[in-house]
Amino acid sequence: MTSGSPALASIDLAVVDVSAKTIWLFLHVRTQDGAEGFGEATLFGAEEAIAAEVAKARALLLQRPLPLPGGALQALAMAQASSARRAVTHALEQALVDLFARRAGLSVARYLGGPYRDRLAAYANINRGISDRTPAGFAERARWVVENHGYDGVKIAPFDGLNWQGDLAQRRRALAAGIDRILAVRDAIGRERRLMVDCHWRLSRLDAIEVLRLTESANLFWLEDALDDGAFSAEDFRSVRSTANGIGVRIAGGERAETVADIHDIAAAGGMDVVLPDLRVTGIRNGMVMLQCAVAAGMEASIHNPTGPVLDAISVQVAAALPSFAILEGQVGETALFDEIAGGRPTLIDGHRPVPDGPGTGLAPKLSFDAALPKAGSGIATFAGVAGAGADA
């Protein structure tokens, strides 16, 4: 073990039972010299698997003379790792990057070689906070968020119950309902604010083109994850992108991308304008390389950030450390627990989020670690058909 790299003394898990749709999972790590850092391993529907992987991480890593963070991450690496193992590994990377930045007295953005900017364009993912799924309910929530939180953009997932493989009559009803929600939100937030629409891979090529045609007056900023890349061809993706770009709309996606090879495939397909990988899926350093490759291939960089306050704080710092970055997502209005844990609501200035420049992420989360998981069955096993939920909503 190199000097200045003490062994890990503890790895603790915090469980926050937010709602039937959401359970947040956070890691707290501490080294033998008392330094600490925080990461987020939220993985919807896999809470027990995450807890088991944290126990394995303790057995593999604690008190061992491993060079940190690389040695610890390598000890957890395995061929064909489960999604839970990857989530814990990436949460550990977040926590160790946070820890070493704090020890150095640097922000995470500076520790990672930035920052390239001191504030970030930002938008609010409001979908999980919309309990009234009527167009009026969507509109009311969107208006409340922009007026009370100061965001210049919102993202909604309006196509509840839609499945491109489903019954035609049901599909038409769900599609029409989604379009009504989009138009209502545009009227509610005004013309000057950005409006993003997340489809959660629910549309066919023809559905996506129809949505773009029928919402042209809504002036969407982007249409996200319209098509499932496992079911549709590169030609389908290019067709949707061409239609979108023809009316000034971007196509966004890539939250399931894991590697630089995935970015290469996305670029080769030519169907995307904005790539937004998720740091829980990619890890920090790999995710940064992926986004730099995406920018080099002519796409814009963003980050998928729909979960809790720890990942949010990490994502802000990573976004600031990237040479090119478009706009950052934030989960807004699902629960007051977000602000309670973070110690306050994220600050916005002219629709932008300032990048904290204190040590680490700048977050001292108010959490109880090693809390028990919710009782079996208290959450949901699948988001299929659940209003306000998608893969990550």
From TrEMBL:
Enzyme Commission designation: 4.2.1.40
Catalytic reaction(s) noted: D-glucarate = 5-dehydro-4-deoxy-D-glucarate + H2O
Uppermost EC category: lyase
SUPFAM superfamilies noted in UniProt: Enolase C-terminal domain-like, Enolase N-terminal domain-like
Domain named Mandelate racemase/muconate lactonizing enzyme C-terminal: residues: 135-247
Pathway the protein takes part in: Carbohydrate acid metabolism; D-glucarate degradation; 2,5-dioxopentanoate from D-glucarate: step 1/2
A Pfam family the protein falls into: MR_MLE_C
Name the UniProt record assigns to this protein: glucarate dehydratase
